[in-house]
Amino acid sequence: MIRIGANPICWSNDDKQDIGGDISLEQCLSEAKAIGIEGMELGHKFPREADALRPILAAHGLDLVGGWYSTFLIERDAEEELKQARAHIDLLKAFGCKVFIAAECTRTIHGTQSAPLSTRPVMSEVEWGRFTTRLTELADYLAREGLTLVYHHHMGTVIQTEAEVDRMMEATGPAVKLLLDTGHITWAGGDPARLARHYRDRIAHVHTKDVRPDVAKQAAAEDWSFLDSVLNGVYTVPGDGAIDYVAVFREIPDYSGWIVIEAEQDPVKAPPARYVKMGFDNLNRFIDAAGLKR
Q1: Start and end of every Xylose isomerase-like TIM barrel domain (predicted)?
Q2: What is the total count of domains within the chain?
Q3: Whole domain around residue 83: which residue ranges?
Q4: Residue 294 — very low, low, confident or very high, per pLDDT cuts 50/70/90?
Q5: Which of 76, 91, 183, 282 could form a disulfide with 239 if both were Cys (CB 3.0 to 4.6 A apart)?
């Protein structure tokens, strides 16, 4: 079954919290529900205690989809990572979430506005071995807790390009699943349809944002940071950029789970209620055109 969710980063940015800082959690959730969104991922304005969060989501008739967790597996072992993630794990389990969204953030520069994307970290051979071994161990631990680790490749991090996604997937065990993020892989020069086809049996979560190629080209030419690129509109909602979503979705005909609108923009330039509604309507068309099971 396909369900459409949203990430609050469409309203308020997590990496630079003054972007959409004036937008309340109440506005975010009310607008999401009015659009037809069924569930939300976590953002920095969400309480992280189940007893506090439950009535807020219930008041809007929304489920908790899951939420980003920053791993530092290059620096610490899987057992330590599990300890650090304990509160997050318990929150996810309290809401019956199925996925644990992980992104390696050792030396990441995606949240540093002054750091051009050209300065993003790259792993050494030793670090590759350490990272993939520990990621597999963490995924195995989480599986025993009833959670599926889905890896979130991301601009500005050690897993950014299609080749890096391939290497990570090849070097990790079956408990490591992929979060397919159409926007990140497209901006990184990859092909989301090819990733969907190649890893269809290991894709357990999907993030959708579209890319404006002219902005991406300018970002590369002028050596912008991730955040400056976002503020200049590199990302938008599905159907408002260059990605062929029907082609991507046709490669995952048996996918069942959440498809999440996660399109960070400047809300002053791209009012969230209007843009998320546009993305929601487009996604519904694309899902139906691709023949995915509702």
Answers
A1: 30-277
A2: 1
A3: 2-290
A4: confident
A5: 282
